Amino acid sequence: MKSPLIDELLRVAVVSGASDLILHSGRPALMRREGELTPIEAPPLTDADLDDLWERTGASVAALDHDGSLIAPDGSRFRVNLLRQLGARAAVLRRILREIPVLDTLGVPTELLREWSGRPAGIIIVSGPTGSGKSTTVAAALEAINQSVRRHIVTIEDPVEYIFESKASLFTQREVGIDTPTFAEGLRRSLRQDPDVIFLGEIRDALSAATAIQAAETGHLVFATLHSSTCADAIDRLQLLFAPDEREAVRKTLASQLLGILCQRLIPATDGGRALLCEFFSNAASSRRIIADGRMSDLIDFIMRGDPLAARSFAESLLRLVKDGRVDGATALEISDNPQEFSRMLRGITSSTQSLRR
Fold it and tell me: Three-class SS of residue 155?
């Protein structure tokens, strides 16, 4: 029997702009919105509700873990992970988005991303913690290509978060676990699928990292996401995926193929939403030498002192958000990696403002 509660929860998730629904038998549902978990005012889920969900996703009643999909009454699509916890059934539903944000609206370095995206080959890394909007940034960049250039774009994702409509470009979207067994295998096979642009949803191991770099080296434009806290940390994490005797060679190849790194975080904004905080650099001759040599402290200094159009630190980006009124000073101090130094930078803004008023 179809559960009206499941349909209502799907409707609420869509209307509220939630990214995820978390369902536990015997408990009211939760949704994740703007990165925060929020209870939904609805009755606790019953066994009958979960029976319906299991049936709709094609899982057997006895299934312990199952990945599937679900289409809501309004046509919205969800990826579904069914599970059991403490013997009871539960599920996490991730909404798959069709409306792809315009690059100019995200708060990322738009011109730099457009420049990178226009290159015929190389690797672009978008990094940050889980839920920082990495996939959204890449999707917006891919959509910009899609609207203007004829390319074959192959994506390997887990899960697919945006469904693209092929326009000037043609998309082949593959989901790990459904269309290909692993990221590394999907990436390896994508090289035989005549791609111009490849999006690797996440670099998880040495094999996927090596194949992504090789794809860039053999004439493909590669977008990849990575979990890291800073641009320098992204380089460090990549090399640490490899054995010690391989790292120098990996750094040298990466240094020659890397177009740039964008690292991002979502932080509380003054309007109650979230603001995008970015650190980035465009890889140039001096940074190539730094990366090849593994001098991460010098890379940090390069980002802090480089051309502001081609490199910007988190501290400088945070200062700009405060100056523009997007983030308040107290929040910025809490978020800052170096509160004492950032407090000095804030005093500089205050002094400049007072001088202008005089």
Answer: strand
Question: Which of these, 164, 70, 131, lies nearest to 265 by C-alpha position?
Answer: 131
| DSSP string over 300-312 | HHHHHHS-TTTEE
Residue 218 CB-density burial (10 A; 0-12 exposed, 13-18 middle, 19+ buried): exposed
**Residues linked to residue 279 through DSSP beta bridges, in sequence order:** 263
CA-closest candidate to residue 203, choices 218, 192, 194, 215: 215
Distances (CA, A) of 79 to 96, 175, 187: 7, 11, 21
Enumerate domains of the chain plus CATH numbers: 4-96 (3.30.450.90), 103-341 (3.40.50.300)
| Residue 356 burial by Cβ neighbours in a 10 Å radius (0-12, 13-18, 19+) | exposed
Unique residue bearing structure tokens 């990094």: 127
Beta bridge partners of 170: 152
pTM value is 0.85
Q: What is the pLDDT of residue 298?
A: 96
Average pLDDT across each block of 10 residues of the chain; the chain has 358 residues. List them in order: 88 92 95 88 93 89 85 89 92 89 94 97 95 92 97 92 94 91 93 96 94 96 96 96 96 97 95 93 95 96 90 94 93 90 79 35
Closest CA to 17 of 136, 175, 140: 136
Pairing, β 36-39 against β 66-71: unpaired
Rounded Cα–Cα distance for residues 60 and 41 (Å): 29
**DSSP secondary structure string, 329-358?**
HHHHHHH-SSHHHHHHHHHHHHHHHHHHH-
